[in-house]
Amino acid sequence: MPVSKSGSSFVRLCSLSWRAANSAYVPFGVKGVCVSNHSVCLGDSQSVTGSRDRAAATRDPARAGEALAQGHGGGSGQGIGLTHFPSDSLSDSLSDSLSDSLSDSLSDSLSHGVGFGGLDWLSLGIYAKSRAAPSKIRDYYPKQRRYELQSVGRRALPKGRLWHCMRRVLSSVHGVDVLHDPEHKAGFLKGLETCGSVWVCPVCGAKIGERRRVEVEQGIAAARDRGWSVLLLTFTFSHGPADALSGSLRRFLGAQGHMCRSRAYRELMVLYGATGTIKALECSVGSNGWHPHRHVLLFLDAELTPLEVVALEAALYALWSSAAGKVGLGMDRLHGLTVQSTWGAVGDYVAKWGIAAELTKPKKGRGAHLTPFQLLGLVVDTGDVAPLTLFREFAEVFKGRRQLVWSRGLREVLGVGVEKSDEEIADEVTADAVLLATLDYEHWQAVIHYDQLEHTRARVLTFADAGDVIGLLDYVGLLLVRYNAEVAGPL
């Protein structure tokens, strides 16, 4: 990598290996923009030094695009190299509007370059100076929170897949793709290792949970169109602070299996016209110890009257308490089983899937119970590492278990489609996502280096959400300059 001498200091140049497959956000290829001694170098042969010339160059997108396309750096070799490949399919109207936006950013940047280590940086649309970015950078905190919790989880599980999730680059040659979905205003990072765990990873868990929630909502909507009813069943049992999670979960799942395989249960389901179930396994912890429980969406082929719902709940409770008693579990009538039949109750519960409020707010769960991710939130908010012991116990017991299970054939009947694994969902991006840029290995190392203190991964994704490729290039470029000066040192 080339070195630029400025005064008595040497600075490693930020030669960005951006490979963009879609430049709908930049109307011309940015191949070489640098600032040297307060002059702007466009290509290999042009230097705009006066304010009048600078304004003329930036107000004329065609002229600026032509000049920028001629070279990849200034004649002096100083500055920041940016590589961005244009798309021939841009519409004229889009190109014109985006040219104006980029030109304004360039004009502002000429007089507000960032001096760093003897190198003047041309600030291309950094979010603090961009016209559109401030209104688009609106959901940064949820992303920050998820990555904060993930970082804490890594401390509890240093040998698991969580340690490298969304951090390790799969190919140091290709780098990391930054993508943007224009329809959903969502950003993605591709080319990183993922753990695909809904239990211990707040990042993968949020993505997988949201996908599962959408599928469940599609199934419920299809059931309503058919005139079916959907009941929300919650199965639990009595427990205490001395009960180990491994033993409690094993007995709980054993009792569930005994009940569902019993002849009485199967006959009850036939009597009420059950067409299928969606079972969700969950766990929290509180003053009474670990609280594993299961929510079940029960699909019936007809609407039930309130009296029929009461009768079904009584019959199910008798079966559940009997099965639980066989494995040494106890319960009471109030907490052992609840059946909710209103669409509002069902919808409220499903809406909480995927959104996972505990990922973004440190509030406590119902009845002072904390979810595993809320345990991580306590560590972030208080600095107390004691909850990591509980989180580590939870991770060991729930490893490899499925969180959400559809009964056989229900997805096909409701037209939801083929189910994907958690790992596949964690790795996928939406079909409409377009490539903004590709970060090479060196730039991603800079992002990771500052992530713990500055939440740089969340910031990169926020730029991707907004489709702000200029702000993205600017931000990551500055990170690398800092990284080389503070960590890598001069060449």
How do you describe this structure in short?
By secondary structure, the chain is α+β, with helices and mostly antiparallel strands.
Outline the structure in words:
The protein has helices spanning 51-59, 61-68, 92-111, 133-136, 140-156, 202-225, 245-261, 263-271, 306-326, 343-352, 372-382, 387-398, 410-414, 422-427, 441-449, 451-454, 456-466, 469-488, and strands spanning 3-6, 9-12, 33-36, 39-42, 46-48, 114-116, 119-121, 176-181, 186-190, 229-235, 274-286, 289-300, 337-340, 404-406, 434-439. It starts with a strand and ends with a helix. A hairpin with a 2-residue loop joins strand 1 and strand 2. It has 18 helices and 15 strands. The chain has a 5-stranded antiparallel beta sheet with strand order 13-10-12-11-14. The chain is of the alpha+beta class. The model is unreliable at 1-138 and 355-366 (pLDDT under 50). It is globular. Helix 5 (140-156) crosses helix 11, helix 5 (140-156) crosses helix 12 (387-398) and helix 7 (245-261) crosses helix 9. The longest helix is centred in the middle third of the chain and has 24 residues, at 202-225. It folds into 2 domains: 3-132 and 468-488, no CATH class; 202-427, no CATH class. Helix content is 44%, strand content 16%.
Identify the overall geometry: globular
Number of domains: 2
Number of helical regions = 18
Order of neighbouring strands in the sheet with most strands: 13-10-12-11-14
Features:
single chain; 491 residues; 5-stranded antiparallel β-sheet
